[in-house]
Amino acid sequence: MLNQTIFAISDDNGALPELCAGAKSLASRVIAVVFGDSSAAEAAAGCGADAIRYCPVSDEGAPEDYAAAIAAAVKKEDRAFVMLNNSIRGRCLAGRIGVLLDTPVLTSVGAVAEEDGALICRRMVYGGTAQRSERFAKPYGVATISGGAFEPSAGLPACTDIAQLEGEPEGGIRRLSRAEKKEGGVNLVAAKRIVDVGRGLAAEEDLALCRELAGVLGAEVGCSRPVAENNKWLPKSSYMGITGVQVKPDVILALGVSGQVQHIGGINKSRVIVAINKDKAAPIFKNCDFGLVGDLYKIVPALIKKLS
C-alpha cells in the first residue's frame, strides 16, 4: 500500500463504492468527491472513503466547473492519483483536471495495481488484442476506471469527515435546458448472471425469448455492440465490450454471439462463459468454458422448460 492520497471522483454516486474499494487497497488515504449538496454527500457516506468533499453544482452548471477546485485540492498533496468513473462526463472532467495538473490522462483503465512503489495502470489496446501497462512519471496521475475493475466492499462504517470542497466553480458554459433520455438500462457491472444477446438473434421480437430465459436464471440482459448501436434493439448502456460495459459476472450465457475480440474484451473476466451458436467456427467457442453448437431457437425454449 502506498503512502499517498487517491481522489475517487464520480458523477454517479453508485460508482463510488467500487472506486473507493480499489483506492483503499492501493493507498493510505482516500478522498471521495461527489457532485451535489450536503445531503448528496451524506447519502454517499458508506462508499468507503476516509473523507468526502461535495461540490454543489448549480442548475445551470456542470461538474466540470469544479475542475480547478479539484486540481487545487490535489496539489495540496505531494503525490496523488485521481480516479474517475469512465463515463462521458467522467472523461470530460478527467481531461480538464489533467491539464490543470500538467499530467497525462489514461482512459478506460481496466486494472490498477501497486508494483515497486508505483501505481501501474493496465488497459486494453489495439482493439483488444493486447494489454498495455503504464505508470505516471509525474507526482500526479489521472485515470478513468472502467466499471468492474474493482470489487466494492459491503458493510463499511459511514464517513464522518464531510465538507464542501474549497473553491468556486469556474465555467463559461451554462445549461439553458435539459431533456432526459427516454432510455432504460440495467446495472450490468453489478449483475451476477447475464444473458448476452448477439447478432444471431433474427428479430427484435425475439428478445422476449431472451428475457424469459433471463427471468428463469435471475439474470440481466446485455448485448453486443451491433445489437444496440446498429439494430437499436437495446439501450447503448446494455452493450458489453472494450468500448462498452466491462463485466465480470459469475456466469454469462452468450446467445448468437460471434465472439469478436472487441466484445470478448468486455466479458472475458466472467467466471464462466457459456456459448450457444449454430456456427461451429464462431470465435466465441475459443473463449468460452462451455459451448453448444446448435440453433438457439430450439435450445433456449428447451432450457427455459428445463429450468422453470
Describe it.
It is a single chain. This protein has 308 residues and is an alpha/beta fold. The chain folds into 2 domains: 2-164, 3-Layer(aba) Sandwich (Rossmann fold); 188-307, TPP-binding domain (Rossmann fold), CATH 3.40.50. 24% of the residues lie in helices and 27% in strands. The protein contains 8 helices and 15 strands. The protein has helices spanning 16-24, 38-43, 67-75, 88-101, 207-217, 225-230, 261-267, 296-307, and strands at residues 2-9, 27-35, 51-55, 80-85, 105-109, 111-115, 118-125, 130-134, 140-145, 162-164, 193-197, 220-223, 251-255, 272-277, 290-293. The strands form 3 sheets. A 7-stranded parallel β-sheet has the order 5-9-4-1-2-3-10. A 5-stranded parallel β-sheet has the order 12-11-13-14-15. Strand 13, helix 7 and strand 14 (272-277) form a beta-alpha-beta unit. Helix 3 packs across helix 4 and helix 5 runs parallel beside helix 8 (296-307). The radius of gyration is 21 Å and the shape is elongated.
